Amino acid sequence: MPSAAATPATPAVSVTPAGSAGGGGVLERAVAWAEALCSEPRPADVAAFGGEGLLLRVDVPTRHGAEQPHLVHYRRTREGRWEAGWTMPWATQAVAVDGGYVCVRREQGRTLIVRRPAGGGPEQVLFSTPGRAGALAVRPGGSAVAVSTTTYGGPGEHPEDVLAGSDAVWAQGCDMTLSHAKQPQGPWQVHLLSLDGAPPRALTPHMPAGLALTGESAWSGPATLLLGVQRHHRDGIRRFGLLAQTLTPLTPLAPNAGDDAGGGGVVAELFSDSVDLCYPVQGEDGQVAYLATTVRRDNEPVSQYACLLDHLLQPRLLPAEGGLWQRPVGWDGPRRLLCTAESGPRRGLYVHDLDHGTWQPVPLPASVTSARIHAGRAAVLTSAPDTPPALDVTTLPTTTPTPAPAPAPAPAPAPATVTAATPGTTPAPATPASAVTASPSAPAVAASAATTPAPASAVAAPAVTAPAARGRVVERVVAAEAPVLPGRLSYRPQRIPTAGGEVASWVCLPEGPPRGTVVLFHGGPFKSWSDWSWRWNPWPFVACGFAVVLVEPPMSLGYPDAVRTGWRQWRGGTAACAAAQVEAVRGAEGLLDSPLALMGGSFGGYLALTTAETLNPDLVVAHAAPLDLAQVAESSDVGWQWIREFGDPTHWRPLYQLNSLFPRPVAAGTRVLLSHGLQDGLVPPTETLRTHRALARQGVRSEVAFFRSEAHPLSRPGNIRAWYRWVLSATTEELTPPNQPTPPTGEQPPAAGAQPASAGEQATRVGGLGPLDRERGLPPGPSAAAPAGRRRLAAPPLADVPAGDRLSWSASQSTPPAGQSRPDGRGPVPAAREDARTGTARELAPPVHESGPDTGAVPAVAAGRTGATRDGLTATDSLTAADGLTAADGFPAGAGAQAIAAGVHGSYDSHDSHDGHDGHDGHDGHDGHDGHDGHDGHDGHDGHGGHDGAGGRGGRGAS
User: Fold this and answer.
1) What is the spatial distance between Cα 466 and Cα 612, in angstroms, rounded to a whole number?
2) Residue 849: CB partners within 8 Å, gap ≥ 6?
3) Is it true that the peptide bond before 525 is cis, omega within 30 degrees of 0?
4) pTM of the full predicted structure?
C-alpha cells in the first residue's frame, strides 16, 4: 500500500455476503477467514521514533505455529513518503539515540543489547546476558543508556542445606509463585552502557530491606536515575514506588562490577501513601511522568491518573475530563505531555499543556494502540474492531484552546514517604501542587464504509481549534491487511438501570439474516473492544452468518461512571448488567428467538459461564476463566491483585464465594468448550479441569482442551488457528436450527500459499505487512509472489499442527435426561430455554454490601497496551516476547510462564493485550501487552490491562 502524503481517507470496505462466495460451505469460508487472520504479520508496538526514522515491532507467524518478533525500520524520504529499510529478527524493543537505535534482541540463547545505525550498517554489541532485558533509559545528553536485566537462577537453597542434593526450590514469604518454582528468577541488575565504546558499568544499588527492583527505570536529569521498586507485604498487599539513585563524581562507577556491587551514589526511597507509581515516560531533558493508580480506601474502586514528580519527588496528579483514566506516552518538549485516555468507542491521544492547564485531543482515524513522540510529531499505531492496525505519523496541534470550566478535581495525594537509604539524604516532604484542570473533549468516531455511525447525541466531537486542524499533516507509513470483512459494524451506547452510568455494545451483522447470535465478552475486567483483535476476532463468526455482540459491561475501560457497579460485585453487578445488555441488543435486532452462544477469555470466560444461568445459551466457550475466586487468589502468581479488589481470602471468604461461579451454571445438555494453557500462572489450569469435571457430572456436554505450550493467553498462531477450527465447528453445529442443514464441514487440502511463510520470508515481507512489492517501497523477497493478505484457503486439519503445539483434547458426552432430547437429534434442550428468550435478564445476585476489616494498600493498576502491551506479556521482556516459546523456538523452555511470574503491575488478564501476546513481558498484572501487565488499561495490551498487566486492558488482548 503506498504511503499517503496527506490525511489518509478511510478505505471503503467491500462486503461479501456470508453465503455468496462460491465454492465450499459457510464453515469452510469462516475457517479460511480465521486462517488468513492467523497468517498475517501483526504490528504490535511503535518501538522507537526519532530524527532518523522509526522502528515498528511486528510479530510474524512462523511455519511451526509460533511467532517471531521483528523490528522493522522505516525512514522518511524527501518527498514525504515512508520506506522500509532493514529488519531485525528476534528483536522486541528499542530506544532512539544519535545516529540510530539501541535495540534488544535474542540470539543463540542470549539477550543482546546492540547499537544499530539508522542506515542499517553493522551493529555494535553493548551488552550480553543469558537472561532477559527490562527497561532501556537514555541518559539526558545521549551519551549512555541504562538497562535493567535479570537472569534465570538455580533452585533456592535452604539456609541449613537440608534440601541439598534435591531439585527443590525453597522460599519464604507469601510472594512465592509456582512460576518461580518452575524457573527461579534472579534479581534485577542495572548497568550503564556507554555509546562511546567504554565498557559497561554496574549501577545496581544496595537494596533497602524488603524492596525489589521491577525492571523499570527513567532519568530525572543526567545525575538521577529513578528505578521502579516494589514491596510485598506479609498480608499479601504489594505496593509500587521508586528508588532515586543520584550519581556524583565522588562515587565513580566500577567497570564490570559484580552483581553484588553497589552502584554508588545517594539512594532515596519514595513511596506515596495515596498512589502507586509505574510505567515511567521520560522526556529528552529529563522530565518524567508516571502512571499513578490510587490506593484503595474503604473498598472504593481504584482510578488512574497521569502523574508528575516535582523537584522534591512529590507526586502531582493531572486529572482528565469526566474522570477518564489516562496514561502518559510521551513528551513534546518540557511542558507538553502526551497521554492516552479511553472514552466510549475510542482510545484517544491528548496533549496536556502544563503551562496553560489545558488538554486537547489529537485527531486520529481510530483507537490508539501505541504511540511515540518526537519533535512535534507522533508516530501512532491505531486500529478499530473493523480496521486492522495502521501506522501513521501526524503533526501535533500547537494552538491552545480556551479552557472550559474546571472538572471535579482529582484527589490530592498525601505527602509521599521518602526514606533515605544513605544517611543525611532525606528531603523534606512538600505540599503537592494543585492539579491541572482539563477542558472537556471527547473522541469522535469516524465511521468507515462498513460502519454504521453512532447517533450524534451519543458521541461528541473533539474540541479542536481550527488552526490546529488546518495545519495538521498525517502521513501513512504502513497498514496491516485482513480479508474482506463479511459484514458491517455499529456501536450501540446503552443505558441499563443497574449499570450506574453509560455502557455499550458493538454489533457485527452479516449481510443476510443472522442465523444466530454469538456474544463475546472481553477479558480484564478493565479492557474494551476498541481495538482490532487478532485473538478474539468477531469476523470469522460473521462469515458463518452469525450476528456477533461485543459487550462492554461495567468496569470496561471508557465508562468511568460504571466502574463502581462492578467493583467487588462481579456477579450481581457486572454479570447481571452484561446479561441485560445482551438481551437489549438481541431484542433490538429481533434475535431473541435465535440460537445463542456465549464466549470469552479469562474474565470474559467467567462472564460467559456466569451469564449462562440467565441467558440459557446453546453453546458456551471459555478460555482460562477464573471461576473459584478464592482458589485463584490463593494460588495465582498475581494473587495480590485479587486481594487489592476483594480483600484477604480468609477474612472475606463469603465475598469471594458470592462472586464465584455457582455450582450449576449451565443447563444439562448444553455444549461447553473449555480450554486453558498449561503454563498459565495467572489463572491456574486446575480451574478449567475442575470445572470440566463438575459440568460433566451434571449432564453438561463439556469438552476441554489444554494447550501445553501456552501461558494465560493463546498467543501462538498455530494454536489460535486450531482453536478457531474447534470453536467455529461447534458454533455451526449447535446454532444451526433444526429446519436448516448444517453447512458442510469438509476441508480442502491447503495449497502452498495457505501456509505461513518461513520466518525469513515473513521478515522480508514484514515491512509491508502483506504483499511485499516495490509499490510499497520494500526490498523484493522470496515470497513476494504469495501475498499474505490474499490467502483464502481452508486451514490444515488439526493433525497438521506440530506435536509440540498440538492440544490435548477430551470430551464428555453425558446421557441426556429423559424427555429433553431435541427432535433433530442434537442432544437435550436446556431447561427453561423459552423463558430466557423473552423478558428482561434478571439480576444474578443481590448487590454486595460488605462490612469488615479493610485490607489496606492497593497495588498499582497498569493501563493496557499503549506503548506495547499484551495480555500477560510485555515488550520490555525480551525473553518472553513470544509467550510459551520452547527451546526449539530459540527461547528457554517455559519462558512465557516465567514472564508472567516475574511481573509487577498486572491485570486479571493481559496483556490483551492488547491480544494474545497482548503486552510487555515482565510485569504481570490485573490486566493488558500489550511490558507491564496491568489491570486492564489502555493495555496488552495488554492493562489497565494493560501494558498487560495481569492481563490488560490490555481485549485487545487476551486470553
Assistant:
1) 50
2) none
3) yes
4) 0.74
State yes or no: pLDDT of 922 exceeds 60: no
Name the packing angle between helices 717-734 and 26-39 (round to 10°).
160
* Closest CA relative to residue 220, chosen from 299, 153, 156, 284: 284
Q: How many CB atoms lie within 10 A of CB 183?
A: 18
Q: Which of 730-744, 758-772, 872-886 is modeled with the greatest confidence?
A: 730-744
| pLDDT at residue 202 is higher than 80 | yes
Q: What is the 3-state secondary structure (H, E, C) of 316-382?
A: EEECCHHHCCEEEEEECCCCEEEEEEEECCEEEEEEEECCCCEEEEECCCCEEEEEEEECCEEEEEE
Name the residue with higher pLDDT: 565 or 768.
Answer: 565
187 touches 902 (CB < 8 A): no
pLDDT of residue 897: 27
Nearest to 834 by CA among 593, 660, 601: 593
CA 167, CA 185: separation in Å to the nearest integer?
Answer: 15
Partner residues linked to 152 by β-bridges? 185
Please give the grid coordinates belonging to residue 855: 485490607
| Farthest CA pair distance, the chain | 87
DSSP state of 197: S
The DSSP-derived string for 76-104 is: E-TTS-EEEEEEEETEEEEEEETTEEEEE
> pLDDT averaged over the chain?
72
Q: Which of the pair, 192 or 10, is modelled with greater confidence?
A: 192
Instruction: Please choose, from the candidates 667, 714, 668, the residue with its C-alpha nearest in 3D space to the C-alpha of residue 688.
Output: 714
Q: Would you call 197 exposed, middle or buried from its count of C-beta atoms within 10 A (0-12, 13-18, 19+)?
A: exposed
Phi, psi for residue 772 in degrees, rounded to 5: -100, 105
φ and ψ at 527, to 5 degrees?
-140, -170
Answer yes or no: are the C-beta atoms of 102 and 113 closer than 8 Å.
yes
Please say whether the dihedral angle defined by the alpha carbons of residues 557, 559, 561 and 565, taken in this order, is positive or negative.
negative
DSSP element (H, E) containing 635: helix 629-635
- All three cell numbers of 15: 462486503
| Position 532 pLDDT exceeds 80 | yes
Q: Please tell me the distance from the alpha carbon of residue 162 to that of residue 160, in angstroms, as a whole number.
A: 5
Contact 790, 771 (CB under 8 A): yes
Spatial separation of the C-alpha atoms in residues 522 and 563, rounded to whole Å:
15
Secondary structure string (H, E, C) spanning 841-897: CCCCCCCCCCCCCCCCCCCCCCECCCCCEECCEECCCHHHCCCCCCHHHCCCCCHHH
Please check whether residue 378 is in contact with residue 477, taking contact to mean a CB–CB distance below 8 angstroms: no
The 10s digit of each residue's pLDDT in 411-462 is 444 444 444 333 333 333 332 322 222 222 333 222 232 333 332 222 232 3
Cα separation, 767 vs 478, whole angstroms: 8
CB 907 within 8 A of CB 161: no
Say if residues 538 and 548 touch (Cβ distance below 8 Å): yes
- At 337-351, the pLDDT tens digits run 999 999 999 999 999
Contact 883, 685 (CB under 8 A): no
Q: Give me the mean pLDDT over the 251-262 stretch.
A: 43
The pair phi, psi for residue 889, each rounded to 5°, is -90, 0
Contacts of 816 (CB under 8 A, 6+ apart): 668, 669, 699, 827, 828
Which residue matches cell numbers 490490555?
954
Tens digits of residue pLDDT in 156-189:
677 778 888 888 888 887 888 888 888 888 889 9
Strand locations in 757-822, DSSP E?
808-811
Q: Where residue 748 falls among pLDDT bands split at 50, 70, 90? A: very low
For residue 480, the one-letter residue type is A
Rounded Cα–Cα distance for residues 172 and 93 (Å): 34
